[in-house]
Amino acid sequence: MVSFDPISKYLHHLNRNAEINHVTSGVTRPTGQGAWCLELESHYHDLEQGTGNILQHYITEQTHYPKHVVAMSDHPIPAPTDRQLELLTQLRQAASNRSHARRRLLREASQLMESANQIIDSYTNGGMAPSAGIMWAMEQHMMSLVEEMCVVRAEERFYRDLEAEIFRGIGQ
Questions:
Q1: Which of 55, 70, 91, 110 is nearest to 164 (CA)?
Q2: SS3 24
Q3: What is the mean pLDDT of residues 41-51?
Q4: How many angstroms separate the CA atoms of 30 and 26, rounded?
Q5: Tens digit of pLDDT for each residue in 131-157?
Q6: What angle do helix axes 82-124 and 132-169 make, rounded to 10 degrees?
Q7: 37: exposed, middle or buried (C-beta count within 10 Å: 0-12, 13-18, 19+)?
Q8: Maximum distance among all alpha carbons in the chain?
Q9: Of the candidates 5, 14, 66, the residue with the CA atom closest to the CA atom of residue 44
Q10: Other C-beta atoms lying within 10 Å of the C-beta of residue 5
Q11: Do 36 and 61 contact (CB within 8 A), yes or no?
Q12: Are 22 and 3 in contact (CB under 8 A)?
């Protein structure tokens, strides 16, 4: 089975009659004067002879490490500042608090609807008519829950936009 990683492709290209099972090691080692050598060792199965051997290849290039280090340091990786990290942490905590608030609101609304259904069921089964005051109080409670949910959603939108703004500002 031929792997599709670059090292196996290279080794397979060198010996077209070989099926490469896997590369057992790939070691980069300095060879002096800042040059490097990539040493590859792979096990392969010769398709014509039916034998298994270890194939070793050395890929070398005369490139100096300091050039790579300088080239890489020209492109700094953007990282958030301490203030941005603090704000992101606060936003995460606020998101957790909103999640708890949302669950509480949904639980209260569910309990309220369950109570309303019980009152309506008792009335339809020949019971007493529900008090207008009780029904009005339940309606007001439900309206306050809807308003709280709207506030939670507005906070979510605001904090989501703030988080996006913070991420856009990283590294600037």
A1: 91
A2: strand
A3: 50
A4: 13
A5: 889 999 999 999 999 999 999 999 999
A6: 160
A7: middle
A8: 99
A9: 14
A10: 13
A11: yes
A12: yes
Q: Is the pTM of this model over 0.85?
A: no
**105-117 confidence digits (pLDDT tens):** 999 999 999 999 9
Rounded distance between C-alpha atoms, residue 63 and residue 37, angstroms = 10
* Eight-class DSSP state of 170: T
pLDDT digits (tens, 9 = 90+) for 47-100: 555 555 444 444 444 444 444 444 445 667 888 899 999 999 999 999 999 999
Contact between residue 124 and residue 108 where contact means Cβ atoms under 8 Å apart? no
More confident residue, 87 or 8: 87
pLDDT band with cut points at 50, 70 and 90 for residue 8: low
Q: Distance of CA 114 to CAs 67, 107, 138, 150, Å?
A: 72, 11, 11, 22
Give whole-number Cα distances, 11 to 37, 46, 100, in Å.
16, 13, 57
Q: Write the single-letter amino acid at 73.
A: S
* CA atoms of 126 and 167, how far apart (whole Å): 62
Q: Name the nearest CA neighbour of 26 among 44, 7, 45.
A: 7
Sole residue written with tokens 């949302």: 102
Handedness of CA 137, 140, 145, 151 (dihedral sign): negative
